[in-house]
Specification:
alpha/beta, globular, two-stranded antiparallel sheet, single chain, disordered N terminus
Length: 141
């Protein structure tokens, strides 16, 4: 989500809902495909760290707001996943669940898979190594 300053918060940033997709940063690129009914696949390439996590969060929020039953976050093009990015994905998964959407994560880069596995987030992110193993939306819920 975008940051704005709220005078009542003494200059601390406050997250607000995004109104449109943001331009990709040089370190993170995202593209999405929508099947028109039940599924959005978000392809993420680059590094997910403190500098790019807000961009990822905004993109995930926009996808979740579409009201689909399934969101697939394809991290096969991600070369680094920092703790901020991991938390962003976990929070997005919770927000998706609250709307009736299931978030699945696809990852094959060893550094990304290891980060998700070691921290114990693999079940919450429904980590898969191959998009073909994600059940169809009608079977996902």
């Amino acid at each position: 989500m975008a940051h704005t300053t709220n005078p009542a918060s003494h200059g601390l940033p406050r997250r607000t809902a995004p109104t449109s997709p943001l331009d990709d940063s040089a370190d993170l690129r995202t593209t999405s495909s929508y099947d028109g009914i039940d599924r959005i696949t978000l392809q993420v390439d680059g590094e997910i760290d403190l500098a790019t996590v807000d961009q990822l969060g905004d993109t995930l929020d926009i996808a979740i707001a579409k009201g689909v039953r399934q969101l697939i976050v394809d991290l096969r093009g991600v070369s680094f996943l920092g703790s901020d990015g991991l938390n962003c994905l976990a929070e997005a998964s919770q927000r998706a669940e609250a709307t009736g959407c299931r978030l699945y994560t696809i990852a094959t880069q060893p550094v990304v898979v290891r980060t998700i596995d070691v921290t114990g987030f693999a079940p919450a992110l429904r980590l898969r190594g191959d998009p073909a193993t994600v059940p169809p939306p009608d079977l996902a819920l």
